[in-house]
Predict the structure.
Amino acid sequence: MSDEGFFREVNEELRKDQARAVWDRYGPAAIALALLVIIATAGWVGYDYWTTARANSSGDAFSQALRLANDGRADEALGALQTLETGGYGSYPTLARMRAATVLADKGDQTGAVAGFDAVAADGSVAQVIRDMARLRAGLILVDTGSYADVAQRVEALTGDTNALRHTAREALGLSAWKEGRAADALKLFEQISSDQAAPRNARERAAVMLELVRGSGAAS
């Protein structure tokens, strides 16, 4: 055997010994890590499938409830929405609560509808934007059925210059003020809408009509 061949065999044996030593030291940990990765991946895939299935099921149930409501089957829709409120997944329970209040309003149960929207507005676990929308919806109902104070309690906080809901909130408050004979308050609110270039055109047009009505009545002078 040549010197070159001898040294090659020695080097190969040394590499084998080194590899064996590394395996003896780190092999069990590497196997454990690999198993952990496999288990974690399988767990995530399973969880993702489970959450997707629950979300899809809740989405289907919500769509079915909407169909019932649109078909005029209010009591059945309310039953389906109540089931979704208690057993739904993700945002669907909150959406079910909002829609149930709307169904009650459509049925003529204004008191129940306001109570439903108020409950959502008072729920700290619900996203702020949804709570604000619930306040606005309750206020809009109360324009016809409640007092100015009732409406103001819900929507006055939404009338600030930076609030995205300010246009509708001001309109609700203005209509309620006009209904209650508070012409000066109504005039101020409709002027705010009319002069706000960020307000939707139809909101500005309605405000302009109301301004003519209030000014024409002479009640605000």
About this structure: The first helix runs from residue 3 to 70. The CA atoms of residues 173 and 199 lie 16 Å apart.
